[in-house]
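Notebook entry, structure prediction.
Reason for the run: the old model in the group folder had no record of what sequence produced it. Starting over properly, with the input documented here first.
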Amino acid sequence: MSHPGNNAGSADRSLGQLVAAATAEMSALVHDEIALAKAEARQDVRRGATGSVAFIVAGVLIVFALPVLSFAAAYGIHSLGPGLGLSFLYTGLGFILLGILLGLFAFVKLKKVKPPRKSIASAKQTAAVLQGVRPHPRPAVTAGASRPAVTGSTQADKALEKAPVQDKASAVARSST
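New structure, fully documented this time:
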């Protein structure tokens, strides 16, 4: 038989047992949440991959359909009366005209693109502020000294320069006696 304090519904469990049980349940909950997130991510990746493949196949089919539609347009124009050569010429000129119109549309849209003024202004302001900042002097370590030699102009720096240099072994020996 199990100890009554080990049952989850027992009212006479100690505080330590309750904390341990809560910690274990919280850990299990976190692990389950992580497992759920991983499963959802895998499912989303699969859906994304499937959608991407379908999009690529659709694009390839459209590219293959363009020549067929071009021939259909040329033969459709031919059935209206002009010769076959003129029908293909009209179809080709129509594609060129559509290309020029689309190019002009793209040019107008791209001409409206402006540089990110706010970001540039913020970067210039940050650069201006940082130009006036000087780095703190870093202490230079001299050979054989236990403390760094500081070159500065403050009174504390000058006091450190005048203080005698002791090695670590003698300082430890004095502190242990």
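Summary: The CA atoms of residues 79 and 87 lie 9 Å apart.
The old model has been moved to the deprecated folder.
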